[in-house]
Design a protein that fits this description.
- The complex is a heterodimer of chains A (191) and B (386).
- Chain A has 191 residues and is of the alpha/beta class.
- Chain A has one domain: Pyruvate-ferredoxin oxidoreductase, PFOR, domain III (Pyruvate-ferredoxin Oxidoreductase, domain 3).
- Helix content of chain A is 29%, strand content 23%.
- Chain A has a seven-stranded mixed beta sheet with strand order 2-3-1-4-5-6-9, with helices on one face.
- Chain A is globular.
- With 386 residues, chain B is α/β, with parallel strands linked by helices.
- In chain B, 41% of the residues lie in helices and 19% in strands.
- In chain B, strands 3-2-4-5-7-6-12 form a seven-stranded mixed beta sheet, with helices on both faces. In chain B, strands 9-11-10-13-14-15 form a six-stranded mixed beta sheet, sandwiched between helices.
- In chain B, helix 7 links the parallel strand 6 and strand 7.
- The radius of gyration of chain B is 20 Å and the shape is globular.
- Chain B starts with a strand and ends in a 6-residue tail after the last strand.
- The chains are: A alpha/beta (191), B alpha/beta (386).
- At the A-B interface, helix 1 and strand 2 of A face strand 8 and helix 10 of B.
């Protein structure tokens, strides 16, 4: 039992995709939007490029005393669709919980869309379109953050874009800002 | 309104340390401390840190370099973890017996083998008798505030002791949380320049650390004990001043949370100390009168305050450490404090060793076992398959 005001989020991705950075950027934006208590942390383990990784975020209006892992998230964010074959991303997701997936598929194509609120966005496509690449690989963490305000009213696109501009400079920042806008416009939410 | 920085415990500690303008930082990287010294290196590169940064070849050398620098009368800082701390062991005694106020963050990590990088307090608990003042933090804000407060405490003329600020691996070292910063001019106003009683100076040559006879050495130890006792008075004064200046307060030697009218009071440290607040909230909602006394300062030990608690309530102790062949160190210290004072019941739990997560639900279960008279004197909570 914790505060009803608290939102807990689990990010699933692969090492190198920036799940931890996504969690950090999201809570920094949430703080700007007036959520006084925020936390972002990685799954505490050895990280390997390409291996499944998790990151966690908590957003609250009050100071957060929790120091344990997130076991029953309100929101799950999947950066890499293929993770879902090997990781039970729905584990612990609350009743009426939300899941945002980086995929070309529509929400209705997932059989769990009857049980949970599913949102989909082709974040990989958005990253490729805006040339957001590291070592030739699309980086999906900033694009997918643009879709989050559509499923979580505690954080605004404006704040997310502000944090992106404070983290990156010049053209790179603007590419990422455009990507967040694209993902915001493109995300499909089915409740 | 002061600036808010959102970052991990390690980067927050680096920020706090640099604001205190140490003349010398000497450090060697070790997981999960690495980003702390990286943070200081970054401030060196940007010019925000203007002192000497000595890259050494081991933690023993890191502490030796801090001792050497501190002996010349300047301000010093370092950070380490687990095996790094243990490699410093000899030098930890040296710093405290030489009465050199080296300030150090220790990121509490498991001692191997088996190899494990997660949170466990056995590293710093095993350094209990080195003479260092020991704090255990439970939030990034507390890390920031305690690092700055520790310079004032350790360098105080009646203390002259090194201070270790411990916080749990990853749970704090790698978790981002918002922290209210203190401006440079406010830190400067709070923290006076170090005024050492003696220092190594080529213009005024002295020796230090020469042989002394038994009766004199005994006085050295007695004086150290007196300083620890004095620190029990000074820590609350510094916390009070900090609160008056900046409005932030994390407790004195203990932080009390919902202890009014409690039948049982939980004692825990570090990250479990923060998680315990959630457990206490939930237990109170169920009508169970449980409060929390989070142990911020383990050395000096808050004996008198724990005695007072025992007059009002039974005590429940959670240790994320074990002294093999005995029990958790906090459990031992709490019971020792009460000898001849009360016959209060005290129950101990070992939990979270090896970085095992200790969620609030588990803390509630431990407390309920005690409240429902089902607890043994000591239990390894949640231990399976043995």
């Amino acid at each position: 039992m914790t505060s009803a005001d608290l939102v807990e989020i689990v990010f699933h991705g692969r090492g190198g995709q920036g799940a931890v950075t996504a969690a950090n950027l999201l809570v920094a934006a949430a703080l700007k939007d007036g959520n006084k208590g925020v936390q972002a942390f990685p799954f505490f383990g050895a990280e390997r490029r390409g291996a499944p990784v998790r990151a966690f975020a908590r957003i609250s209006h009050d100071e957060i005393h929790l120091r344990s892992e997130v076991y029953t998230p309100d929101i799950v964010i999947v950066l890499d669709e293929s993770i879902m074959d090997i990781v039970d991303v729905l584990k612990g997701l609350k009743k009426n919980g939300k899941i945002l997936i980086n995929t070309r598929a529509k929400p209705g194509e997932f059989d769990f869309s009857k049980k949970f609120i599913v949102a989909t966005v082709d974040a990989t496509g958005v990253a490729l379109k805006h040339d957001i690449l590291i070592g030739g690989m699309p980086v999906v963490n900033t694009p997918i953050l643009g879709a989050v305000p559509k499923i979580l009213n505690r954080v605004t696109l404006k704040s997310i874009q502000g944090i992106v501009r404070s983290k990156w400079k010049g053209e790179l920042a603007e590419q990422n800002v455009k990507a967040t806008q694209n993902a915001y416009d493109a995300v499909v939410v089915k409740s | 309104m002061s600036e808010v920085m959102i970052d991990t415990g390690n980067y927050i500690a680096a920020k706090a340390a640099v604001l205190c303008k140490p003349d010398v930082v000497a450090a060697y990287p070790i997981t999960p401390q690495t980003t702390l010294v990286e943070g200081i290196a970054k401030y060196l590169a940007t010019g925000e840190y203007k002192g000497e940064y000595i890259c050494v070849e081991s933690e023993h050398s890191a502490m030796a370099a801090c001792i050497g620098a501190s002996a010349t009368g300047v301000r010093t800082f370092t950070g380490t973890s687990s095996h790094g701390l243990l490699l410093m062991h000899e030098m930890l005694h040296w710093a405290s017996l030489a009465r050199l106020p080296v300030i150090m963050c220790n990121i509490n990590r498991v001692v191997g083998p088996g190899w494990n990088i997660w949170a466990d307090e056995n590293d710093s608990i095993s350094q209990r008798d080195t003479g260092w003042i020991q704090f255990y933090c439970s939030s990034n804000q507390e890390i920031f505030d305690t690092v700055i407060q520790s310079f004032k405490l350790g360098e105080h003329e009646k203390i002259s002791l090194p201070v270790m600020i411990s916080y749990n691996a990853f749970i704090l070292s790698h978790t981002s949380m918002p922290v209210y910063l203190t401006d440079q001019k406010d830190v400067d106003a709070f923290l006076p320049k170090r005024k050492p009683k003696w220092k190594l100076d080529p213009d005024n040559p002295i020796t230090f650390g020469n042989i002394i006879l038994p009766a004199e050495y005994e006085k050295v130890r007695f004086d150290m004990q007196k300083s620890h006792e004095y620190a029990k008075k000074l820590i609350p004064e510094i916390s009070k001043e900090w609160k008056q200046r900046f409005g932030r307060y994390h407790g004195d030697l203990l932080e009390f949370y919902k202890c009014d009218g409690a039948d049982y009071i939980l004692l825990s440290m570090g990250a479990i100390g923060a998680e315990s607040k959630v457990a206490v909230d939930n237990l109170r909602k169920e009508g169970l009168k449980v409060g929390l006394a989070r142990v911020r300062c383990f050395r000096p030990f808050p004996r008198e305050e724990i005695q007072k608690l025992s007059k009002k309530a039974g005590l429940i102790v959670i240790d994320r450490n074990i002294s093999p062949g005995m029990e958790g160190a906090l459990f031992t210290e709490v019971k020792a404090s009460l000898y001849g004072y009360t016959d209060a019941k005290v129950y101990g739990f070992i939990a979270g060793l090896g970085g095992k997560d200790v969620p609030f639900g588990d803390i509630e279960k431990m407390c309920k076992k005690v409240v429902n008279s089902k607890a043994k004197h000591l239990e390894w909570f949640g231990l399976k398959g043995v």
